[in-house]
Amino acid sequence: MNLRHIEIFHAVYVNGSVSAAARALNVSQPSVSKMLRHAESLLGFPLFHRANGGLVPTEDAHSLFGEVREIQDRVQALREAGRNIRRGTGMLRILALPSLALEAIPTAVSQFLRAHADVKFDLQTVHHDDLLRKLHERETDIAIAYQLPPSAPLNQRWLGEGELVALYREQDLPDAPPSLELGRLRGHRFISLAASGPLGQLFTQELERAGVELDDVVSVRTFYMAAALVRQGVGITVVDSFTAQACLVPGLSMRPLRPHITFDVHAMHLINRPPGALADDFLKTLKRVLDAP
Fold it and tell me: Domain boundary at 87, 106, 136, which?
């Protein structure tokens, strides 16, 4: 059976007669009857018998329908996907690090939907260690993160740049200059993110290079939690600029470090699953958001 046979069989099975199937498919009754007889000839057994003016599926047809229904559903999904691509609509599955999901991703989604009202989003957050698994298991199509996992079979696209900044209560650093040398963090209780992935490693390496030791009182793995601890007066911290900007409230301030510690933001996808036109448009919107002052 080819796809046309499957479509005809499915329509007759669901609608109960050749005439109803023809109306559903917008074709003539003779063409439906002809294709149905051809399908039965190929299979070597009847699919329906007549009763009370309609067609009743045989036991063999009942057995066959489960497989046919699955194929027909996939064909319909493929057609819908094609229509969505032509209309510029569809589903975008985006995964991002929590720090980018606080403000940058929501802002980009909001802006994108103004021009693409019919698009739907499936948004997830994930820590860096789980990024590759989510892509391989097809739970997302694109991951927005800071560093490509080593030796990963991924392609990446540069979207923008961020930097590490000090986040603190103004009462703890009342005379803070426009930028802070790492040495200025000495003598303050420090909330460490050394184990928080690539950015934590980046900051640790800079501390070692500068020969600076800090008074770590709490170690966390999530930048948002570090910011919440700063609000509660636990200490000061160094987080990415996206988290700091999203978490600023009256009484909190942020300062860039001196020298600057910067990092890149990338969109990543499996080599054999490049983003389509709709995803490409969204990434352009996200890049503009990241570039905004």
Answer: 87
pTM reported for the whole predicted model: 0.66
The H-assigned helical ranges of 88-152 are 98-101, 104-115, 131-136
The domain total for the chain is 3
Query: What CATH number does residue 60 fall under?
Result: 1.10.10.10
| Same domain, residue pair 102 and 195 | no
If asked whether residues 142 and 269 sit together in one domain, one would say: yes
Distance separating alpha carbons of residues 67 and 44, to the nearest angstrom: 17
By DSSP bridging, strand 154-169 and strand 252-258 are: antiparallel
- Both 155 and 169 in one domain: the answer is no
Query: Domain span at residue 105?
Result: 91-159+265-291
User: Can you spell out the DSSP letters for 140-169?
Assistant: -SEEEESSPPTT-SEEEEEEEEEEEEEEEE
Residues 153 and 282 in one domain: yes
293 residues of the chain, pLDDT tens digit each: 888 998 999 999 989 889 999 998 899 999 999 999 998 999 999 999 888 777 899 999 998 988 888 888 778 767 766 665 554 457 899 999 999 999 999 999 999 999 988 889 999 998 877 888 888 877 888 999 998 777 678 899 999 999 999 999 999 999 999 999 999 999 999 999 988 888 999 999 999 999 999 999 999 988 999 999 999 999 999 999 999 999 999 999 999 999 999 999 999 998 888 888 889 999 999 999 999 87
Alpha-carbon gap, residue 45 to 48, rounded angstroms? 9
Last residue of a domain, one of 38, 56, 87: 87
Structure tokens at 128: 């860096």
Rounded CA gap, 89 and 81, in Å?
9
